[in-house]
Fold this sequence. Notes:
Helix content is 32%, strand content 33%. The chain has one domain: Glutamine Phosphoribosylpyrophosphate, subunit 1, domain 1 (4-Layer Sandwich), CATH 3.60.20.10. The protein is α+β, with helices and mostly antiparallel strands. Residues 6-16 have low confidence and may be disordered. It has helices at residues 11-14, 67-88, 94-109, 155-165, 172-189; strands at 21-26, 29-35, 38-40, 43-46, 52-56, 59-65, 119-127, 130-136, 142-145, 148-151, 196-203, 206-214. Helix 2 crosses helix 3. The protein is built from five helices and twelve strands. It is globular and about 60 Å long.
Amino acid sequence: MTYTNKMETDQNKFLKTGTTTIGIVCKDGIVIGADKRATAGNLIVDAQAEKVHDIGNEMAITIAGMVSDAQLLTKLIKAEIKIKDMRTLRKTTVKEASNLLAGIVYGNIRRMSMVPGVTHFLLGGKDNTGYHLYDIFPDGSITHIDKFIASGSGSVIAYGVLETQWKPNLSIDEGMKLLAKSVNAAIQRDSASGNGLDIVTIDAKGLRFAVRKQTKVSVEL
């Protein structure tokens, strides 16, 4: 994730995203996760950033892009899901939640502003139709994912691991190990990714934060 730097005048610099977020479809559920570093240019602003969020109804999202927009849109989608649940007297499905979020993202990028917000979400969840994973791109487009997806500046590195080691019928445990290996690969080469790993699993037991690991950047003797 990236914080905006008011001292920068080049608009392209505002649009840079720095993170590695990953979603993997397994035979018995969904695994999503992300690193924990948030940056502003070359500065590490937050080494404990929360990039994986529970949005209710056994659904979770990962966030990438501009921090302020990502945080605000996360609050909005949580509220929209609760409102829809109350209006329809049933739980919002994963597809409905993804479409709601995609609509919000579309409106955000199209707003009249000198520096439009750029956000990229992965949304995974469980409903009465099964397990689903969606990619909500910064332009508001939405894609249903049947294997795996990565976003952020470290995604090009993570994809190398995912493409070679993903296989059909992965278990949740195997998916967690593959996600960790992919994020670790990105951390080794992407300066905007690092400082730890959060992983959420969604399976028959529900949603849980399976991994919350912080790593040190200093060397102790």
